[in-house]
Task: inverse folding
C-alpha cells in the first residue's frame, strides 16, 4: 500500500506540480466557456472543475488524468437550465453522480472492451477537431495583435522543448506573454472577457427543488444522459492515457470516482463533468504521471481564482488558444489517412461515421454508440456466412455445416438444404460449426423436423462441447437424434 502511494503521488513531484499548474491555467477559459454553453454563471463551471479535479485525484482510477466541467455534459443540460433553472441542474448533477457510482459498482468499465479500434480513432479525431474549432473564435477576426500573440505562442511551444524540458513550454508561454501584455498592452481578448470571476470558495447547499416524484421525472432523463456521456468520455480518455503512458488503470474505479466527484460537486453549486482528453494530453505531455498533477490542477485553479483572480483575468486568450491548438495537433491520429487506404472498408466507414455524427451533434457519446452499433452489424454480417456441403456415401447422406450458426446466419444455412425424401439416413455434421444461441438450436430443430416430414431418419452429429450443451438445454429433439 505504501509503495502504491509513493508511486501514485510522490514520483517526480516537481514535474507533476508544474504540469498541474499548466493544466489549471488551461482549465479556466474552458470552465467559463462551458458555463456559458450551459446557461449558468461562470463560477458554476469553475467550482465544478476545482471540485472534480481534486476529488478524482483521490478516488479516481487513472493517475495523471484530468477531469473537470466539460462541453459534452454542458450541452445536455441546456434545456434543463433554460426551462427549470440552475437549482434543477444541481439536483440533476447529484443524481448523475449516484447513477455513475451504481454503474461503477456493477463494473460497467468492462464494456469498454466492446468499443472497436475504428470507433476509438473516430472518437479521438472528432474530439481533436472539436477542440480545434472551439479555438478559432479566439484567434480569427479580432486584431493583428491576436495573430502575433498566437504565432509567438506556437513558436515557444515548438522551439523551447528542444532546449529546455524542466519547465513545461506552455507555462513559459503563459507567464512571459501575459507579462508582456501587462507591460506593453495589446489589442487582444483576455480570460476576463469570457465572464466575471468571484474570489470565493464554494459553499455547501441543498438544491432548492421540491423533493417529489415530479422533480425526479424532470431531472432523471438529464441525469442518465449526463452519466452515460460522462462515463463514455472518461473511460475512452482513460484508455488513451493508458496507451500514451504504457500503464493500466482501473476503469471500474474510475466510474465510481467520477460518480463520487459529481455527487459532491452538485452539493457545492457545480455542474456535472468528466475526464477531458485535451487537458489530460496537456498534463501527460508536460511530464505528469501521478495523482499529484491532477490534485495540483484543481487546487491551483481555485488558488488562482481566490488569490490571483485579478491576474488570471488578464491572461490573453490567444495564448491559451495556441496551447489548445498544439494539443489538437498532437491529439489527432495522423495515421488515419493511411488507415483509410489500408483498413477494411467497413472499418473505415465506421470511423468516418463516428467522426461525422460527433461533429454534427457535438455529442461524443452518440457518435461512439452509433459507431459500436454499426461495427456490430458489420461484424454480424461478416461472420454470418455459413456454407452447407453435401456428401453421399454408401449408407447415408451427410450435410456438413461450416461457419458460425446464430440468429443472423440460420436463414442462409437453411436455404442451402434441399428438403426431400432420401433413401438413406441423414447426418447433420457440425464438426466445423459452432452453435451460439437459441435461434441456432431452433433452426436445427426445424431442419430435423422438415427432413422427418419427408420420411427421413436424421441424426445431429459431431457437435463440440459447448454446442452439445446448448442443444441439450434448449432443443426439443430426443436424445437419439444426437450422436
Result:
Amino acid at each position: 500500500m505504501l509503495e502504491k502511494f509513493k508511486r501514485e503521488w510522490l514520483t517526480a513531484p516537481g514535474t507533476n506540480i508544474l504540469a498541474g499548474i499548466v493544466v489549471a491555467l488551461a482549465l479556466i477559459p474552458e470552465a467559463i466557456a462551458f458555463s456559458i454553453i450551459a446557461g449558468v454563471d461562470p463560477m458554476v463551471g469553475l467550482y465544478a472543475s476545482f471540485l472534480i479535479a481534486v476529488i478524482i485525484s483521490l478516488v479516481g482510477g487513472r493517475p495523471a488524468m484530468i477531469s473537470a466541467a466539460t462541453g459534452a455534459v454542458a450541452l445536455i443540460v441546456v434545456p434543463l437550465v433554460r426551462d427549470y433553472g440552475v437549482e434543477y441542474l444541481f439536483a440533476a448533477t447529484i443524481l448523475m453522480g449516484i447513477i455513475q457510482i451504481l454503474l461503477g459498482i456493477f463494473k460497467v468499465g468492462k464494456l469498454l472492451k466492446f468499443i472497436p479500434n475504428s470507433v476509438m480513432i473516430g472518437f479521438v479525431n472528432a474530439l481533436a477537431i472539436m477542440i480545434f474549432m472551439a479555438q478559432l473564435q479566439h484567434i480569427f477576426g479580432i486584431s493583428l495583435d491576436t495573430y502575433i500573440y498566437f504565432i509567438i505562442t506556437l513558436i515557444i511551444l515548438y522551439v523551447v522543448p528542444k532546449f529546455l524540458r524542466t519547465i513545461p513550454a506552455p507555462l513559459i508561454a503563459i507567464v512571459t506573454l501575459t507579462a508582456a501584455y501587462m507591460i506593453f498592452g495589446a489589442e487582444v481578448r483576455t480570460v476576463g472577457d469570457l465572464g466575471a470571476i468571484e474570489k470565493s470558495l464554494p459553499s455547501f447547499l441543498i438544491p432548492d427543488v421540491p423533493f417529489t416524484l415530479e422533480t425526479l421525472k424532470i431531472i432523471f432523463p438529464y441525469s442518465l444522459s449526463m452519466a452515460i456521456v460522462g462515463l463514455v468520455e472518461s473511460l475512452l480518455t482513460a484508455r488513451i492515457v493508458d496507451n500514451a503512458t504504457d500503464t493500466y488503470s482501473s476503469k471500474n474505479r474510475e466510474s465510481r470516482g467520477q460518480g463520487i466527484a459529481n455527487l459532491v460537486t452538485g452539493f457545492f453549486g457545480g455542474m456535472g463533468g468528466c475526464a477531458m482528453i485535451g487537458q489530460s494530453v496537456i498534463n501527460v505531455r508536460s511530464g505528469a504521471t501521478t495523482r499529484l498533477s491532477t490534485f495540483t490542477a484543481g487546487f491551483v485553479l481555485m488558488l488562482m481564482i481566490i488569490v490571483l483572480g485579478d491576474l488570471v483575468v488578464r491572461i490573453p486568450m490567444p495564448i491559451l488558444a495556441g496551447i489548445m491548438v498544439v494539443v489538437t495537433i498532437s491529439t489527432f491520429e495522423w495515421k488515419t489517412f493511411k488507415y483509410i487506404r489500408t483498413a477494411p472498408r467497413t472499418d473505415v466507414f465506421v470511423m468516418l461515421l463516428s467522426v461525422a455524427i460527433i461533429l454534427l451533434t457535438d455529442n461524443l457519446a452518440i457518435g461512439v454508440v452509433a459507431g459500436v452499433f454499426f461495427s456490430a452489424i458489420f461484424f454480424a454480417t461478416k461472420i454470418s456466412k455459413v456454407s452447407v456441403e453435401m456428401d453421399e456415401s454408401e449408407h447415408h447422406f451427410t450435410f456438413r455445416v461450416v461457419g458460425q450458426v446464430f440468429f443472423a446466419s440460420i436463414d442462409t444455412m437453411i436455404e442451402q438444404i434441399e428438403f426431400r425424401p432420401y433413401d438413406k439416413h441423414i447426418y447433420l455434421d457440425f464438426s466445423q460449426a459452432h452453435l451460439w444461441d437459441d435461434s441456432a438450436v431452433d433452426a436445427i430443430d426445424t431442419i430435423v423436423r422438415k427432413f422427418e416430414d419427408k420420411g427421413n431418419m436424421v441424426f445431429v452429429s459431431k457437435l463440440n462441447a459447448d454446442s452439445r450443451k446448448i442443444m441439450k438445454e434448449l432443443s426439443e429433439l430426443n436424445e437419439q437424434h444426437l450422436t
